[in-house]
Every structure is written in structure tokens, then in C-alpha cells.
């Protein structure tokens, strides 16, 4: 091992296993080693905050298997790093709300159209204004559906099935959503009334922060055969939606973090960071959290479904055609803040694990039974958004993902700058005007501060993140898209 194969960052040592794979050897109370999947360029950014320290802390979780992993877009989070993956034994380990995060089932969905960029040119301002007026965004309440008690209960228990029953979805939408838009383990009774009250008026809303609705054009196709299976081609218009479970998911996380502090303080005391709060597998609290989390997952899928269906109606008005005629079909919806029971090979043994993905996307290769029949022979679509001034990517689950990452890859570009710093560095109106004048990207948001917080310069290079994923074989490049219209909260 040469000097170039070892990185020492304070008391953290990383050893190069192979290209783009750095290992933090097991020492002290670590239960497993940790791995960072990054190029030298990305590693230099990852080391700037507490990501590596948080990754090391995550290896202390009971039942952690193989290694804790940081994806190429990794950055500091709440306890567990964003871009982190950790798999714990479902019988002898734990489930960690802190390792899922507050925005349960924050995720992305992409909707295809048969429109070309040429057909959209000249309508950008009309479209962005119409989308902003019709898709609720920003902090607080206000959604497409004003839910009552029965509606919220139905959403939590049945997911997108509820949306189908109430005319907000078609059968094909379910067939192209992770888990067909429903977690059967959902337990609405495990969700507090406070959480339900926070969520009932937010069904069908983007929220704030980095959540968005973006109209994009396909600029590049890298794998023609896979793109054809996904229904993608150059110059095509697509729509990307990024949001989660709103106040309901946040409250679920808060509720269970407090309960863990009271009921499992001994486990909490054994961890190097209380923000990793976890409940022992098999405990009543672990089962209740899993049921509540699955219910919040269902809520988030319905939230994105309602936004997508409203977007179809907006396109109908702007383009004067039925959405079916524009072939506005769901490509895929995938979560990137989640913990799921999955079976994986660990040292030659099939084991059921809680796979925690926090700011990481499931990326199963062809053949996994969990995939929709449409994609089972080609591999799971993976959607990786960049900043509003850069491209986004569609990948497919790579052949090496199961071995290297429990079937996972990155979830986005990953921040390099805090929101506070971003507002000091950028002026929202200037960012908006430069995007329009220099790149023909039309942005509309609730405030200039939101645009400043999400300026392209606050994110890592998504091209580099995706290059690493592709070269590692955990998520294969299929197509690249570029923003046309963007609405933010």
C-alpha cells in the first residue's frame, strides 16, 4: 500500500480498497468497517464536514452488517450522514429512526411525455406560472386534497391504492411505483394524532427547502437499449417531482425519537451520538416505529402522486390536449429516506436486514423479485436529481450494487454549503435571472431566499457523482436531462 492509498483526516484513516472505494478499518467499539465510495475530488469535499465522523459513529449500531457506507454525494446529516447506507440484522440488530431521518420517504418520481423541447419552447413562462399557481408549495399547510380523518387513514393504510380509488391515479401509476405505491406493513394506529393533524392539509404539496417540481428535456442517452425499455429518447420532455411526507413524516420521527429516549435509554447511552437513536429489533417500539414509518411512506407516495396528477391537468390546459394523448406516464417513483426489511447475502448466508437508506436510492439490478414486471429484466430505474442549474440523471440498478451497497446508489448531487452560507453568498433574484438569461431555465419560488439556498453553486458536481456510481457498477448511466422550468417552495 503506497502513501497515495492512505488518507489520514484527523483521527480517521481511510485505505483505498480499489478505485473509488475507501475503507475505514474497524477499531475500538466499531462493529464493522466503514466504506466511502468516492473519487479523490468528491472525497476532498466529503471530508470538509462531519460526514466521516458520523459514518464511523453509525458502525456502532447493534446488528450492523458488512460495513456502513457513504455514497459519492455524502454530506453531514442528523446523526447518520446523508448519503448513508447501513444494514442491521432484523432479528438481533435494531431499527434507527435517526438513520432514516425526519422526511420519511423523501423521494423522486419521473413522468414521461411525448412532447419535444421544440413544442415547449415559447411556453416556458406560461407553464412555470401555471404549475406554480396549481401545485401548492412552501412551509405550512395547503394541499391539493384537504383531507379529513377518513382520507388520512386511507392514505396511510392503502397508499396509492387510495389515490386510484379517488380518481387521482390510473392503474399504470401503481405498476411503475416502488412497492406499487403501498407498504403493506403500514400501521396507521402507530401514527400519532398530532402527526395526522399535521399531514391532513398537506396532501399534494411540495413543501420547502430542496423540494421541487421540474420540467426537463432529455439531452443525452448513454444506453440506447435500456433507454428504449424506459421509454426515453433525446429531446423528450419529462417531469421530475422531489418531495416527501411533509409534516406528518417529521412528526413520526420526532415522536419515536422521544419514545426511544424514554424506553431504550440504555441502548442510546451505548451509542457515540444520541442522534443515531435506535430501538432493538423485535421490541414493541421497533415494531410500532416500522408500522408508523411504512404509513408515512404511503403518505409520501400519495403526496407525489397527487402532484403528478395535478401536473397532468396543468399540461392539458397549457398544451390543449388530454394528458393521455401526451403520454404523460409514470416512469418510476423511488424513495431515498427509508428503512426496509430486505433479504441480502451476507458472507454466503441469506439474512433479513433493516436496510437504512438516508439520502440513498435503492438500485436493484435485473432479476430482483421486488421490481415491477416491466423492469425486472432490465433493472430498476434510478433517478438522481442535480441542482436547478445542472443536469439530472436516470440510471438503472447496477450488477455490483447488491455486493457493494445492499443494492443502493446516490440520491442526488449532495450539498457542499449550508443554507445559511448560501444566503450570504447568493442573491435569489440574481440566480433566477442568470438561469433564465444564460441557460433558458425558468424558476419560480415562494421567495428569493429559497432560490439562494438552492443555487447551483451550493451542490457537488452531479456529473462526478454519477460517474463514480457508473464506474463502480452500482448504478449505470442511462440518460441525462436538463432543466427547462422549475418551481420551488
Can you describe this structure?
- The active site is at residue 411.
- The protein is an alpha+beta fold and 489 residues long.
- It has one domain: Alpha-Beta Complex (tRNA-splicing ligase RtcB), CATH 3.90.1860.
- 34% of the residues lie in helices and 26% in strands.
- It has 17 helices and 20 strands.
- The chain has helices spanning 40-46, 51-58, 117-120, 124-134, 149-158, 160-165, 171-175, 193-199, 224-230, 246-263, 265-269, 284-319, 401-405, 419-425, 428-439, 448-453, 462-472; strands spanning 6-9, 12-18, 21-24, 34-37, 68-75, 82-89, 94-95, 107-116, 212-221, 236-243, 279-280, 330-335, 337-346, 349-358, 360-362, 381-384, 392-397, 408-410, 442-445, 475-488.
- α4 (124-134) crosses α12, α5 packs across α12 (284-319) and α8 (193-199) packs antiparallel against α10.
- The longest helix is centred in the middle third of the chain and has 36 residues, at 284-319.
- The protein starts with 5 loop residues before the first strand and ends with a strand.
Counted beta strands: 20
> How are the strands of the biggest sheet laid out side by side?
1-2-3-4-5-6-14-13
Count of domain modules:
1
Helix content: 25-40%
Task: Report the sheet with the most strands, covering strand number, pairing sense and barrel closure.
Answer: 8 strands, mixed
Write the layout of secondary structure elements.
Elements: E1 6-9, E2 12-18, E3 21-24, E4 34-37, H1 40-46, H2 51-58, E5 68-75, E6 82-89, E7 94-95, E8 107-116, H3 117-120, H4 124-134, H5 149-158, H6 160-165, H7 171-175, H8 193-199, E9 212-221, H9 224-230, E10 236-243, H10 246-263, H11 265-269, E11 279-280, H12 284-319, E12 330-335, E13 337-346, E14 349-358, E15 360-362, E16 381-384, E17 392-397, H13 401-405, E18 408-410, H14 419-425, H15 428-439, E19 442-445, H16 448-453, H17 462-472, E20 475-488
Parallel strand pairs: 4-5, 19-20
Antiparallel strand pairs: 1-2, 2-3, 3-4, 5-6, 6-14, 7-11, 8-10, 8-12, 9-10, 9-20, 13-14, 15-18, 16-17, 17-20
Amino acid at each position: 500500500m503506497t502513501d497515495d492509498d492512505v488518507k489520514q483526516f484527523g483521527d480517521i484513516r481511510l485505505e483505498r480498497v480499489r478505485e473509488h472505494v475507501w475503507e475505514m478499518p474497524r477499531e475500538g467499539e466499531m462493529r464493522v468497517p466503514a466504506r466511502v465510495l468516492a473519487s479523490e475530488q468528491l472525497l476532498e469535499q466529503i471530508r470538509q464536514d462531519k460526514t466521516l465522523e458520523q459514518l464511523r459513529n453509525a458502525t456502532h449500531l447493534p446488528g450492523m452488517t458488512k460495513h456502513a457506507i457513504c455514497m459519492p454525494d455524502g454530506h453531514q446529516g442528523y446523526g447518520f450522514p446523508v448519503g448513508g447506507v447501513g444494514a442491521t440484522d432484523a432479528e438481533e440488530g435494531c431499527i434507527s429512526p435517526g438513520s432514516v431521518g425526519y422526511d420519511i420517504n423523501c423521494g423522486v418520481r419521473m413522468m414521461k411525455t411525448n412532447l419535444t423541447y421544440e413544442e415547449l419552447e415559447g411556453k416556458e413562462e406560461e407553464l412555470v406560472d401555471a404549475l406554480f399557481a396549481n401545485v401548492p408549495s412552501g412551509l405550512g399547510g395547503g394541499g391539493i386534497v384537504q383531507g379529513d380523518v377518513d382520507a388520512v387513514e386511507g392514505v396511510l393504510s392503502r397508499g396509492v391504492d387510495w389515490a386510484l380509488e379517488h380518481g387521482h391515479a390510473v392503474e399504470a401509476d401503481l405498476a411503475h411505483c416502488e412497492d406499487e405505491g403501498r407498504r403493506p406493513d403500514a400501521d396507521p394506529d402507530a401514527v400519532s394524532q398530532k402527526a395526522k393533524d399535521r399531514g391532513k392539509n398537506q396532501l399534494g404539496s411540495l413543501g420547502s427547502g430542496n423540494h421541487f417540481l421540474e420540467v426537463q428535456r432529455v439531452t443525452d442517452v448513454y444506453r440506447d437499449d435500456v433507454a428504449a425499455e424506459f421509454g426515453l429518447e433525446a429531446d423528450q420532455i419529462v417531469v421530475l417531482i422531489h418531495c416527501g411526507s411533509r409534516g406528518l413524516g417529521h412528526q413520526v420521527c420526532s415522536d419515536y425519537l422521544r419514545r426511544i429516549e424514554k424506553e431504550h435509554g440504555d441502548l442510546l447511552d451505548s451509542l457515540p451520538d444520541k442522534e443515531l437513536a435506535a430501538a432493538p429489533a423485535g421490541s414493541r417500539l421497533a415494531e410500532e416505529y416500522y408500522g408508523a414509518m411504512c404509513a408515512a411512506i404511503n403518505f409520501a407516495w400519495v403526496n407525489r402522486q397527487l402532484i403528478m396528477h395535478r401536473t397532468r391537468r396543468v399540461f392539458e390546459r397549457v398544451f390543449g390536449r388530454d394528458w393521455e394523448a401526451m403520454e404523460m406516464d409514470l416512469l418510476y417513483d423511488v424513495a431515498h429516506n427509508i428503512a426496509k426489511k430486505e433479504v441480502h447475502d451476507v458472507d454466503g448466508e441469506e439474512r433479513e436486514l433493516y436496510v437504512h437508506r438516508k439520502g440513498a436510492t435503492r438500485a436493484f439490478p435485473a432479476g430482483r423479485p421486488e421490481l415491477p414486471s416491466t423492469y425486472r429484466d432490465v433493472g430498476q430505474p434510478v433517478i438522481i436529481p442535480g441542482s436547478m442549474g445542472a443536469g439530472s440523471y436516470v440510471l438503472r440498478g447496477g450488477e455490483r450494487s447488491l455486493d457493494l451497497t445492499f443494492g443502493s446508489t446516490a440520491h442526488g448531487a449532495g450539498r457542499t454549503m449550508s443554507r445559511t452560507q448560501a444566503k450570504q453568498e447568493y442573491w435569489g433574484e440574481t440566480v433566477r435571472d442568470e438561469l433564465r438569461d444564460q441557460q433558458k431555465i425558468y424558476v419560480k419560488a415562494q421567495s428569493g431566499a429559497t432560490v439562494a439556498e438552492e443555487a447551483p453553486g451550493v451542490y457537488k458536481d452531479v456529473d462526478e457523482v454519477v460517474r463514480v456510481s457508473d464506474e463502480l457498477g452500482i448504478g449505470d448511466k442511462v440518460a441525462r436531462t436538463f432543466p427547462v422550468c422549475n418551481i420551488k417552495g
